[in-house]
Amino acid sequence: MPEIEHAAAAASSEEETALFGKYELGRLLGCGAFAKVYYARNVKTGQSVAVKIINKKKLAGTSLAGNVKREISIMSKLHHPHIVRLYEVLATKTKIFFVIELVRGGELFAKISKGRFSEDLSRRYFHQLISAIGYCHSRGVFHRDLKPENLLIDENGSLKVSDFGLSAVREQIRPDGLLHTLCGTPAYVAPEILAKRGYDGAKVDVWSCGVVLFVLAAGYLPFNDPNLMVMYRKIYKGEFRCPRWMSQELRRFLSKLLDTNPETRITVDAMTRDPWFKKGYKEIKFHEEDYGGGFGSKGVRSEKVVDLNAFDIISFSSGLDLSGLFQQMDGGERVVLQGSPEKVVELVEEVAVAAGLAVRWKKECGVELEGANVNFGIGVEVYRLTAEMVVIEVNRRGCDVVAFRDVWENKLKPKLLCSSSIATTSHHELPELQVAGD
User: Fold this and answer.
1) Catalytic one of 120, 145, 163, 259
2) What pLDDT was estimated at residue 429?
3) How far is CA 71 from CA 65, 79, 89, 163, in A?
4) Is pLDDT larger for residue 370 or for residue 304?
5) Domain check: are 316 and 254 in the same one?
6) CA angle at residue 98 from 93 to 104, to 5 degrees?
7) Which GO terms describe its molecular function (predicted)?
8) I need a labelling partner for 294 at 20 to 30 A (CA). Which of 2, 192, 246, 282 fits?
């Protein structure tokens, strides 16, 4: 392919040849302090992808290590036509490789820097942005760094949200119901973040979407000043002026998005009833499985099974220390045995029913077992390791250790062992595995 170029000068020996025998690296697309992004091609399928390469040594001792872990976790769960897809994550001793969707059109920022968009085009992109962000919020994910630099345009002119490194998930919300981490890009940050009193992740995303929409339609920022503190005061007070060419409907809509009071700021649901937003709006319908998801739009259980890649395997192994990025399991066990994921889940369900536990299907291949005791539950996830072997992760939910041990040690584990002809190992004793490129 014409885009594949010799990358030896730009990549290390780990990256010169086909990465893990799967991806042929090409030209450098961009780079930052901790990562480089290359064009790449899947040598088996010919599919073009982007590979983001992160240097683990540079991450050591920085707060960004947590961002990388969070980005992997979040992107693997998001499957939407207007969100950049994460295909897989690979790793060696020194690097982490994100294999992601190649979005050929570049950043929205590059396009808007050439001049403002028409209201119709601004609205089209905004519809796509809100579809993606509403989807994220429904799954407990808050982006927190929405700006034109993190919005990409594909070859069909469709918008794709990227860069979830500063995202938050519902589990980070404190008992007061708010997030407290200060983050975001100054010109796009919501006033409640500046107040340092805690904030609602969904509402700060709506504010940032409002700033993005203003930039699309005006061609410049609503809040801007060479002096950062002056700019922050403008944001805090909501001081901005719409250009004369904006329609009254758009001005009114922007005032709802850029409302300094998060309690009265418009919500994603309410946007669909706004006159400006409604014009030409069609709900974006899709099936998550078409974008890598485990559930369809109706939440029907999927038969999709997760195959472990090299990154997953080495994160289980003590030979390659990823403790800075991935914590050990707490209150659980990991076992390897022979069999199929489907059979394992079947056996787990049998044991659960016999023990009087409620069974709730999870995304991908796994189940949640819930007892009548609110302090007790078990999470079971199954991954295919090879054609004949699986890894089972069992985690305790709640604080009832006695009930957990009774179900796991006396009922579930013996049943699984009887069904397998291979010995098990705890998560501390997984064998060392060689990974290509090390």
Assistant:
1) 145
2) 33
3) 10, 14, 11, 8
4) 370
5) no
6) 145
7) ATP binding; protein serine kinase activity; protein serine/threonine kinase activity
8) 282
- Only one residue has tokens 């002809």, namely 421
Q: What would the pLDDT profile of 1-12 be if each residue is shown by its tens digit?
A: 444 443 333 344
User: Is 170 contained in some domain?
Assistant: yes
Mark whether 145 is an active-site residue. Answer: yes
Q: Please check the confidence at residue 99 and state whether its pLDDT lies above 50.
A: yes
Range of the structural domain that residue 41 is part of: 13-101
| pLDDT(178) > 90 | no
| DSSP annotation string for 356-381 | T-EEEE-SSSEEEEE-SSTT-EEEEE
> How many domains does one find in the chain?
3
Which two structure tokens, joined as six digits, stand for 370? 């819930």
- Please tell me the pTM assigned to this model: 0.62
Contact between residue 162 and residue 151 where contact means Cβ atoms under 8 Å apart: yes
Regarding whether 388 and 282 lie in a shared domain, the answer is: no
269 and 162 in a single domain? The answer is yes
pLDDT at 169 over 60: no
User: What number is the average pLDDT over the span 233-251?
Assistant: 94
Mean pLDDT score of the chain? 76
- Does the annotation place 282 within a ligand binding site? no
284: CATH: 1.10.510.10
Q: Exposure of 436 by Cβ count < 10 A (0-12 exposed, 13-18 middle, 19+ buried)?
A: middle
Q: What is the pLDDT of residue 261?
A: 94
- Lowest mean pLDDT across 98-102, 172-176, 212-216, 293-297: 293-297
- Count CA atoms closer than 13 A to 124's CA, side-chain side: 10
Whether 131 maps to a domain, the answer reads yes
Measured between alpha carbons, how far is residue 418 from residues 105, 239, 262, 344, 431 in Å? 54, 69, 56, 11, 22
Reference 276, options 216, 228, 192; nearest CA is 216
Whether residue 255 lies inside any domain: the answer is yes
Same domain, 279 and 390: no
Q: What's the one-letter identity of residue 419?
A: S
Rounded-to-integer distance, Cα 370 and Cα 31, Å: 46
Q: For residue range 180-223, what is the model confidence (pLDDT) as tens digits?
A: 455 557 888 888 888 777 778 889 999 999 999 999 999 999 99
Task: Report whether 381 contacts 345 (CB < 8 A).
Answer: no
How far CA 105 is from CA of 111, 123, 339, 340, 360, in Å, comes to: 9, 19, 44, 41, 41
**Strand, helix or coil for residue 432:** coil
